[in-house]
Design a protein that fits this description.
The complex is a heterodimer of chains A (about 180) and B (about 575).
Chain A lengths: L9 E10 L4 H11 L6 E6 L5 E10 L1 H13 L3 E7 L4 E12 L3 H12 L3 E5 L3 E8 L1 H11 L4 E6 L3 E4 L16
Antiparallel strand pairs in A: 1-3, 1-4, 2-3, 5-7, 5-8, 5-9, 6-7
Chain B lengths: L1 E3 H11 L4 E4 L6 H4 L9 E4 L3 H15 L3 E5 L3 H5 L1 H9 L4 E7 L15 H5 L5 E4 L6 H13 L5 E7 H5 L1 E3 L19 H13 L3 E5 L1 H5 L3 H11 L3 E3 L14 E3 L7 H9 L2 E5 L5 H4 L10 E6 L13 E4 L2 H19 L6 H13 L14 H11 L5 E4 L3 H9 L8 E2 L10 H11 L5 E6 H7 L2 H7 L5 E6 L4 H10 L16 H7 L3 E5 L2 H13 L5 E6 L39
Parallel strand pairs in B: 2-3, 2-4, 4-5, 5-7, 6-7, 9-10, 9-12, 10-11, 12-13, 13-14, 15-16, 15-17, 17-18, 18-20, 19-20
Antiparallel strand pairs in B: 1-8
Helix pairs in contact in B: 1-7, 3-5, 3-18, 9-14, 11-14, 16-17, 16-23
The chains are: A alpha+beta (about 180), B alpha/beta (about 575).
The complex binds thiamine diphosphate and magnesium ion.
Magnesium ion binds next to helix 19 of chain B.
Amino acid sequence: MSNATGGGGTLHTISVLVEDKPGVLTRVAGLFSARGFNIDSLAVGPTESSGLSRMTIVINVDTKPLEQITKQLNKLINVIKILEHEPGSAVERELMLVKVRASGDDRARVMEIAEVFRVNIVDVTASTLTLEATGKPDKLEALLSLLDDFGIVELSRTGRIALGRGDRGIKERVLRAAND
Amino acid sequence: MKVTGALALLRALEHEGVEVIFGIPGGASMPIYDPLVDGSSIRHILCRHEQGAGHAAEGYAWATGRVGVCMATSGPGGTNLVTPIADAKMDSVPIVAITGQVPTPVVGNDAFQEADITGITMPITKHNFLVKDPALIAETVREAFHIASTGRPGPVLIDLPKDVLLAETTWSWPERINLPGYKPTTKGNQRQVVEAVKLIMAAERPVLYVGGGVIKADAHAELAKLATVGRLPVVTTLMARGAFPDSNELCLGMPGMHGNYTAVTAIQKSDVLVALGTRFDDRVTGKLAAFAPYAKVIHVDIDPAEIGKNRAVEVPIVGDCKDVIAKLAAELDARQHEAGGVPDRSAWLGQLTDWQRRFPYRYDQQPDGPLKPQYCVERLRALADDDTIVVAGVGQHQMYASQYWRFEHPRHWINSGGLGTMGFAVPAAMGAKVGQPGKRVLAIDGDGCFQMTAQELATSTTEKIPFITAILNNGYLGMVRQWQELFFAERYSGVYLDPDVPDYVKLAEAYGAVGFRADDPGEVDAVIEKAFSVEDRSVVIDFRVDPREMVFPMVPAGASNDDIILDPEGASPTSDPSEAPIL
Ligand SMILES: Cc1ncc(C[n+]2csc(CCOP(=O)(O)OP(=O)(O)O)c2C)c(N)n1
Ligand SMILES: [Mg+2]
């Protein structure tokens, strides 16, 4: 998802704990577009508590608009909690499936790259290899730029998910831009 | 007790203390109308257009502080509510909108009169619900009223499929509200209050910049205390007229695009700006970068997202205005006592009085010249009592009303500030009269606005809800004409309405109301007195006003408030070096 105001800022990862109610994804996504913000990626799934879902949203904004968007998100009735992950304070991962052209000599070279990056080959045809890669965003980017030379046939990424480091869960953490 | 979903809805609304619903029925909402036949403490007022029903609910809410309720059927009924819902969102008006929906098995099938109203209204409601189980109706109603009326108020929509309304369920009223994600902060942080008071104490040129939140929080008494204790001058925005009495010598009136020179300039020159329940709207700030350039800002608001949204803030205080302003007043009082009294700011207060004297609102009514709209407003005010509720449409007349009416009480001024919805006045006035039947309600409307929702005069007649509409009939979409005159080189385009079409007196009579007309200044008082003597029917007054009149002062859109223009000749005292700031 993107719109005209994009770019310029820095990437921020936020976790949004929401009630698992109909329309909640639309409310969150709609708020971003209505307020003119970019979503770089959005991943959503169930959590440790039934009835609650967790969205991991990566946004490209400066700190000031980020504060505004978290405050606006907080106003959504179904949003329980928002946590912004400071760089380095969270484990961030993404899953990617990528189908690469790999016939002749290229095949061995793609397999070599797969090995170096410790990613699995999950489908093979006469002319392509499909790789399954998990990792930090920069690792996936590095892998993709190497694979680009062979020709990427198809790419699918889950978007980033994240958990804060340390022994506490999101519910015990305080939001950075809390009611000041 | 076994009830239908529809009856559960009515019982739930009764539990919430609803006394009136403004609505129009249709296929999907008919189940709700059936139990009304058997009697209910709720009065249903049949409107003539759902937009009218929605604005009536808003007017009721503005005038009473209670939640207004409107109701429509699925599809076009719901979409006709979109404008008032958006209006209520922008102006934080607590309303609950109830819509019928096509039966759940056909939802999503493009069934007859289907519209995805929860999808459509998601960005313009505080929250909305699609109820798929009749057992959930009571708790949904309870949650909806709670959300609409607490925190920063706003519109909530409940969409009810017809089969859910017809299905049987067991009636029970929920003991508790379960909204884990909704916990508005109402109590202001005392440490921040102390910081704010220190700033106020040290201020040489303080101003209280008061917005609609003060009225919503019923904090006018606390505001009066704060202003009096600290001898702090007050500006009241378009949304806050009446939050502080215009007769108080500390009241500077309205700031903003068409505010008076003193209110606008006081903010510009202030060194401490105390923003109370207001959101630094562009119509107040003008060019944001040039707004109140010397001011340290204290911002009190119940909505944390408003704080720092448009203007960086020195002291943010999240909380309900009633709580926070009371704390500010008490703390200021205590500290001033310690310090031996109110700081001497006679230079500042003197400067303000001087500006007020030199730059009041101005217009020129010649006895035999064309009738001026400002004169009509002034005469209406002179002949009305303080307890009159004034409702405005959107345009020049709205600005004249806000400028020239002297407000003494909160909840006596109702208008469409944020969305600027033409057609607001007539139905909102009707809703206000329902909420405050003992008070006189006066709509000051434009000829353009009036034609958008005049059909509610029929409702007013059949339901016996008498109010007065004074049309400042300039034959034009006047505000747009004004901008064309000033900014589009007098190239008038798409703005002429014709003052004779329709004949407003005949139209009033056709609706069962009374119509009067005044063409000349000499007729104005007599017509107003006649209008005020009619008690049992609505009245429409057609004031034939000068189409050339324009609203001043004016800060052109996007300009700095320092470049305020006082009159059509473009006089701007701030550009005069002798008016150098007293800084
Ligand atoms: C629904 C709607 N449509 C258009 C506008 C744009 N608009 C703002 S003021 C105005 C003119 C209003 O005319 P009238 O009611 O005669 O008031 P006047 O300015 O002449 O006093 C218009 C068209 C609006 N605010 N709302
Ligand atoms: Mg007009």
